[in-house]
Amino acid sequence: MQPSPQVTAQPLRLLHLSDPHLYDQAEGRLLGMRTRHSFEAVLERALASAPADALLITGDLAHDEATGGYRLLRDRLEQTRLPCYCVAGNHDHWPLAREILGHFAPPSGSIVALGNWRLALLDSSLPGEVRGHIEPAQLSALGAWLENNRAPTLVCLHHHPVAVGSAWIDSLGVDNGETLVTLCADHPQVRAILFGHVHQAFAQHIGRLELLAAPATSVQFLNQSRGFAVDTRPPGYRELLLHGDGHIETRVIRLGDYPEHPDLEASGY
């Protein structure tokens, strides 16, 4: 008798969104784009394309640190009926965000389970600063946890820990990002570092470690740009398929027919 073929478990599908920049007012615009409209369009597309297991949003949830954007986000996340995890960005008022979002905004340094995978949620924001920094206590706690846990892990934060090739935004990343990357590279169960802030898709390997940015659900920044520049690409998100053996498949999906466009003459925001 021939042995039965082995059944391969379906991978977990994680939706990675970033930089919604939601406003208190429904029609609030960032560089000419209505961020509530673009966020809702991206979320709808992401949820419609295939069943998902969880949603991650890596910061700049609100642009104006007001209640309206966080309340809208909470309502939309509740409607997904999925596990949803948000981390702090430099535009966020994190105490207010945590008060409104509740369990959708776990404490900084939380380790959450997604099947046999783990998500380590870091806070790279600094009050009143655009650049990022990870407090030594967070790095120490993450290192101690990694010493005793071997589940495949994704480390998630807002700011980019490596240069993405745009000089102006690279000056505003995590100022101790090299320490984080070294820590993750020294622990093979860390499969990837996920981040936002750069408003563009990005992917890089450092050894077996992947560094992955999601495009913004709002305005896109031009990649490989020396100074501030807006891109014409539409909003989007990153999809990650997390396999039981620890490997990742990932792709970036954009709204190809999105009708609104940013102000290409903008020199900053």
From TrEMBL:
Belongs to the cyclic nucleotide phosphodiesterase class-III family. Coiled coil: none annotated. It comes from Marichromatium gracile. Residues 12-200 form the Calcineurin-like phosphoesterase domain. This is Calcineurin-like phosphoesterase domain-containing protein. The keyword Transit peptide does not apply. Keywords: Hydrolase, Iron, Metal-binding. InterPro entries: Calcineurin-like_PHP (IPR004843), CNP_phosphodiesterase-III (IPR050884), Metallo-depent_PP-like (IPR029052).
